[in-house]
């Protein structure tokens, strides 16, 4: 297998978002969980997205895991590696976007790296280096209340400068609009000043196509699904990849009981849970009971098991920003997040033991905990449920199983029913 594109994603939902984008753009793509074991049979593909759970871990660990993934991808022929981060630039001043970018840049000896989280299809645009989520700057969006990495600054030049060893420049929309040569010239100018990374503006998909053409000439880029789209289209338009117009796998139906798990506390997920209450039974976990050692996972399972034969169920830990803040004040941010993720993983493991073969999970960290516990080594990408969220078919041991891993902010209000309708 010689890869046209290697990708390292810092969480599992982000990885499936990117794998979905690459597949829709014509690249045969597989998503692996971590670096695949040598004996994992992978189909012939153009791109591999190695999923890590490195967004919110200690920066040194994120760096070492990303470097190992990069070595594996380059060893399979990937001359360009995309480090996939969140379209809302989820990170803190300690990292992990800057430290990982710095390390990967050192490893591949690149002078300057293009960085953009723009993903216009989901309302993420970048102008003058400022990230907008829909109509509002990042720091006014719901991301200001994120449980793990509240985002308080919309200037990505500043945000990344606080995390990186290198100086950060800007390639503005005016240059992008003038085309690939103008972007190349601006990058050369920045690199000449010793600047090692540049935030690049993008508002429309056509901006990402220009960016993709230039980025593909370098060895490393950093961004969300939008730059993935640009890179994929560049690989196809320059003939480096023959477009696989069919996109996505459409395997046999899996059937059997279905369940949804929500650990995301995003506004989008809260609305989706409220809509699901109209069409399926919903169990609200008590986060305090999880943190104080009560067997809340068992209580949820006792509730779910007798209902599974009747139709899908939803189990949610999600709370409003005020409730999240209060819980974190009582127990600590990391302890609260970790304990709830592990309770979700316990629930997922036991639901699968009870026969569940179709599982929808909301939230990146939550999905990471669940997929790790289920020991799924990788996924093939199926149909798109909503922008950035495909149906995934598990590969490797564990039998036939369909999953959907939803990034916290993605999907319309009816997301859970939309997903289950397509997961047959
Ligand atoms: N009621 C709650 N109170 C505090 N923390 C919670 C609660 N419910 C879930 N959490 C934690 O909040 C975090 C949510 O992160 P997660 O990545 O799963 O969702 P997200 O950030 O909305 O999604 P994404 O990363 O895809 O945007 C997890 O660590 C989860 O365990
Ligand atoms: O880019 C995004 O917004 C998503 O793919 C994601 O990474 C959220 O966890």
TrEMBL record:
Residues 5-229 form the Four-carbon acid sugar kinase N-terminal domain. This is 3-oxo-tetronate kinase. Keywords: ATP-binding, Carbohydrate metabolism, Kinase, Nucleotide-binding, Transferase. The lineage of its organism: Bacteria, Pseudomonadati, Pseudomonadota, Alphaproteobacteria, Hyphomicrobiales. Belongs to the four-carbon acid sugar kinase family. The keyword Transcription regulation does not apply. It comes from the Bacteria. Pfam families: NBD_C, SBD_N. It comes from Bradyrhizobium diazoefficiens (strain JCM 10833 / BCRC 13528 / IAM 13628 / NBRC 14792 / USDA 110). Catalyzes the ATP-dependent phosphorylation of 3-oxo-tetronate to 3-oxo-tetronate 4-phosphate. It catalyses: 3-dehydro-L-erythronate + ATP = 3-dehydro-4-O-phospho-L-erythronate + ADP + H(+); 3-dehydro-D-erythronate + ATP = 3-dehydro-4-O-phospho-D-erythronate + ADP + H(+). Residues 260-416 form the Four-carbon acid sugar kinase nucleotide binding domain. One of its GO terms (molecular function) is ATP binding. It is an enzyme of class 2 (transferase). The keyword Metal-binding does not apply. Its EC number is 2.7.1.217.
């Amino acid at each position: 297998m010689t890869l046209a594109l290697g990708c390292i994603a810092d969480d599992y939902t982000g990885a499936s978002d990117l794998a979905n984008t690459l597949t829709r753009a014509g690249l045969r793509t597989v998503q692996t969980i971590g670096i695949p074991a040598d004996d994992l049979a992978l189909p012939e593909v153009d791109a591999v997205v190695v999923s890590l759970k490195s967004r919110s871990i200690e920066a040194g660990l994120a760096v070492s895991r990303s470097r190992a993934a990069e070595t594996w991808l380059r060893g399979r022929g990937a001359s360009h590696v995309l480090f996939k981060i969140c379209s809302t630039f989820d990170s803190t001043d300690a990292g992990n976007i800057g430290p990982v970018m710095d390390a990967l840049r050192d490893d591949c000896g690149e002078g300057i790296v293009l960085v953009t989280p723009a993903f216009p299809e989901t309302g993420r645009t970048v102008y003058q280096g400022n990230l907008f989520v829909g109509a509002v700057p990042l720091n006014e969006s719901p991301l200001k209340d994120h449980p793990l990495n509240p985002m308080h600054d919309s200037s990505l030049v500043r945000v990344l400068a606080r995390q990186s060893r290198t100086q950060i420049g800007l390639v503005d929309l005016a240059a992008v609009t003038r085309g690939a040569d103008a972007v190349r010239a601006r990058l050369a100018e920045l690199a000449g000043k010793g600047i090692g990374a540049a935030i690049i503006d993008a508002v429309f998909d056509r901006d990402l196509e220009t960016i993709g053409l230039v980025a593909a000439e370098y060895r490393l880029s950093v961004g969300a699904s939008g730059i993935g789209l640009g890179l994929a289209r560049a690989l196809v338009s320059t003939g480096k990849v023959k477009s696989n117009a069919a996109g996505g796998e459409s395997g046999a139906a899996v059937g059997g009981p279905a369940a949804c798990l929500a650990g995301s506390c995003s506004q989008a997920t809260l609305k989706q849970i409220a809509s699901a209450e109209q069409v399926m039974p919903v169990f609200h976990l008590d986060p305090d009971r999880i943190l104080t050692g009560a067997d809340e996972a068992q209580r949820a399972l006792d509730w779910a098991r007798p209902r599974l034969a009747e139709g899908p169920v939803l189990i949610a830990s999600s709370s409003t920003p005020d409730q999240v803040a209060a819980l974190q004040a009582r127990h600590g941010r990391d302890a609260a997040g970790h304990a709830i993720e592990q309770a979700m993983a316990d629930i997922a493991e036991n639901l699968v033991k009870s026969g569940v073969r179709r599982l929808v999970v909301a939230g990146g960290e939550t999905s990471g905990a669940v997929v790790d516990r289920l020991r799924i080594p990788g996924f093939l990408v199926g149909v798109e449920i909503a922008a950035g969220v495909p149906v995934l078919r598990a590969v490797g041991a564990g039998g036939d199983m369909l999953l959907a891993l939803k990034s916290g902010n993605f999907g319309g209000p009816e997301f859970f029913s939309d997903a289950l309708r397509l997961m047959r």
